[in-house]
Write a structure and sequence with these properties.
One of its GO terms (molecular function) is acyltransferase activity, transferring groups other than amino-acyl groups. This is NAD-dependent epimerase/dehydratase domain-containing protein. InterPro entries: AB_hydrolase_fold, Epimerase_deHydtase, HAT_MetX-like, NAD(P)-bd_dom_sf. The chain is of the alpha/beta class and 656 residues long. It has 18 helices and 20 strands. Helix content is 32%, strand content 12%. The strands form six sheets. Strands 3-2-1-4-5-6-9 form a seven-stranded parallel beta sheet, sandwiched between helices. A four-stranded mixed beta sheet has the order 10-11-15-12, with helices on one face. The radius of gyration is 26 Å and the shape is globular. It starts with a strand and ends with a helix.
């Protein structure tokens, strides 16, 4: 599929372009700004610089027409991205507007309206002429209503007819930005009447919470003295906005040909921990509102049910397919008990538990979340869901299960989070499997997770596939972990007295990624120009465009928590430090798949473990210059490594 993404130099546009390209689509980026460093080759195959607001005629129009030619899908993200700082005449400015809770644009209302409408019209026309079968428009929840005034007759809350507000409520913008988005939707509605071979989707998303600001939620509750305009009570995670655009671009049922569908995007809760309905009454004087669906707890004022059902999007950290196993009160090995709200997030693939040949437990590893493992899960894949039920628990500390980034503000202020050990993870996962009535399984995991399962619960594990992992964190591995931890903490954002970061440590994350690039792949990746197979011209470009972006938006406190988990991994703690005795407990068949060039889970360690396991183990080294990266072969250049792992995992699972 050939996709054109406008606004590709911006944060959301770039995220959408990159996500589409990672899924194998050819992507052309369009923006009035030049392509940012690293975008070409990672997020876009080609890039065109065009002032879309001027593309109604002349040379800019010709360039736009050429860019759209042959496009299958067009995703239009380019726009002035927020309301004007100048209140429109219909809304009286108040003191509240002097401290805007969101970014406001410098463009006067008339300029903002003109540019957004003109660019949407021009891109829509060019997309249809180019033969696009799907057009996706970045609209806004501000089309539903936004006012600089939080309450009173000119506030949007005074015009709301029921809660939670959904698409059927009707859009009623109060200012030029919301009006420009509604006008853009009307352009698509009009186009759908004659462009019957094209389908149109508008995504009305509310204020985005960026990845690095996720830990700022929940906010302190507003008060009658310092209220907040109603639509801003809602929010959406940055990753969900990107996922929604990708789903809208690729899901056939997002909109029928010759039709236009609008979707609201919002998290199911508000920005605040307090119950929504009492807060509305005390802060905005909104009470007795008819309810179209229950609003329990801190439910959002916006309803995203349509997007959840049709696009499969709700929230990256708790989407409809991810379930949460309650860990409130769970006692950690370090002596701490997890607080109320702590959960183990997991996802189940394939037949229900009990309706398949068995259960495969596939936990996430360092800096990975459940959806990053899905390339290996499915019918005929490495973990074949035509035969097995696959349960994917998220590692404690990874930002989806209980983690520093999900701790409430008061918890973070209390000091460094407790050690979340490999043993804690396996005990929590064991409770989860008991909850799911899955007594026996076949863990597949790196680090010590699979080994920990086989040693701590030998009667519950039949087979183990340890891919680029080890039974314990060795001394060389510890040196590596110490270096990336020190790189993070060298940033001025690290508060040693409180044990957490006060802001995102951009320089520390950059140093972290730079060091990781020397360990995450094998020596041959550089000495034999293995990076060229991934499309990089030189080693510097690979580090700059692959490793640095991979960690740029990570939550640094989560990274530190996972480093501590990794560093303390050691199954021999069950036997007083005797590794041979610990591995002697293992009853399962064990497939060891180290990479011959893994720089921290070394081949030598795997050979030693295989010797201790004896005939229970099968050693199948992955020969690859990619080093540790070979154990996560979702990238196209690692197809041979993926096939190798899949073949031997299938052999392991087929053994009697």
């Amino acid at each position: 599929m050939r996709a054109v993404v406008t606004g590709a130099a911006g944060r959301i546009g770039r995220g959408v372009a990159t996500a589409l390209r990672e899924r194998g689509h050819t992507v052309v980026g369009v923006d009035m700004a030049s392509a940012p460093p690293g975008l070409l080759g990672t997020g876009c195959d080609d890039f065109v610089t065009i002032d879309l607001a001027a593309a109604v005629a002349g040379q800019e129009r010709e360039c736009l027409t050429a860019a759209m030619d042959g496009a299958d899908v067009v995703v239009h993200c380019a726009a002035w991205p927020g309301p004007s700082a100048t209140p429109p005449p219909a809304v009286v400015a108040s003191g509240d507007a002097t401290k805007p809770p969101i970014g406001l644009e410098t463009a006067p209302p008339a300029v903002l309206l003109r540019d957004n409408v003109a660019s949407t019209s021009a891109v829509c026309d060019a997309a249809i002429a180019g033969g696009a079968s799907r057009f996706v428009f970045s609209s806004s929840a501000f089309a539903m209503g936004f006012s600089h005034v939080p309450r009173g007759p000119q506030a949007w809350s005074s015009k709301v007819g029921y809660l939670p507000v959904d698409e059927a409520h009707g859009a009623q913008p109060h200012e030029s930005y919301g009006l420009s988005k509604l006008a853009g939707e009307e352009i698509l509605e009009t186009a759908a009447r004659t462009a019957t071979d094209t389908s149109f989707v508008s995504l009305r998303f509310t204020n985005i919470v960026k990845r690095e600001l996720w830990s700022s939620l929940p906010w302190e509750a507003p008060t009658s003295a310092e209220p907040l305009q109603l639509v801003l009570w809602a929010y959406v995670h940055e990753d969900d906005v990107i996922r929604a655009h990708v789903a809208a671009a690729t899901r056939e049922d997002a909109a029928a040909r010759g039709s236009h569908e609008a979707y609201l995007l919002a998290a199911p809760d508000s920005r605040f921990a307090e119950p929504t309905l009492p807060l509305l009454a005390s802060v905005l004087g909104v009470e007795g509102m008819p309810l179209r669906s229950p609003m329990e707890g801190n439910a959002s004022v916006l309803c995203a049910r349509k997007a959840t059902e049709r696009l499969g999007v709700e929230r990256a950290l708790s989407d409809p397919e991810v379930q949460h196993f309650d860990l409130a009160g769970f006692e950690l090995a370090c002596g701490h008990a997890l607080p109320a709200g702590a959960t183990l997030a997991y996802k189940v693939h394939g037949p229900p538990v009990g309706a398949s040949k068995g259960v495969i437990l596939h936990p996430t590893s360092f800096d990975a979340v459940h959806d990053e493992l899905e390339y290996s899960i499915g019918e005929g894949q490495t973990l074949d869901t035509s035969a097995y039920t696959v349960v994917v628990p998220n590692l404690l500390g990874n930002g989806v299960s209980y983690s520093p980034s999900r701790m409430r503000h008061a918890e973070r202020l209390a000091g460094y989070p407790p050690l979340l050990s490999i043993g804690d993870n396996v005990r929590a996962q064991h409770l989860l499997l008991e909850h799911l009535h899955a007594a026996r399984g076949a863990p597949m995991a790196p680090l010590s997770l699979a080994y920990e399962w086989a040693v701590a619960h030998p009667d519950h594990v039949e087979r183990v596939a340890a891919v680029c992992g080890a039974a314990r964190c060795g001394e060389l591995n510890g040196v590596f972990l110490r270096s990336i931890e020190e790189a993070l903490k060298a940033d001025a954002a690290w508060d040693a007295s409180r044990g957490h970061f006060t802001t995102r440590p951009d320089r520390g994350l950059r140093a972290f990624g730079s060091i990781y690039a020397g360990w995450g792949v094998g020596a041959g990746w550089y000495t034999q120009r293995g990076y060229a197979s991934a499309g990089f011209e030189c080693a510097e470009a690979f580090v700059r465009d692959s490793y640095l972006p991979a960690f740029a938006n990570c939550d640094a406190d989560d990274l530190l928590s996972q480093i501590r988990t990794w560093r303390h991994a050691d199954v021999s703690r069950h036997t007083g430090g005797d590794l041979a005795a610990a591995l002697g407990r293992v009853r399962a068949r064990v497939l060891l798949m180290p990479c011959d060039e893994d720089r921290y889970f070394t081949l030598g360690e795997a050979q030693h473990e295989a010797a201790l396991l004896g005939e229970r183990a099968t050693l199948r080294p992955i020969v690859s210059a990619a080093g540790h990266r070979a154990g996560d072969p979702h990238r196209p250049e690692l197809a041979a490594e993926a096939a190798f792992i899949r073949r031997h995992v299938h052999e392991l699972l087929s053994e009697r």
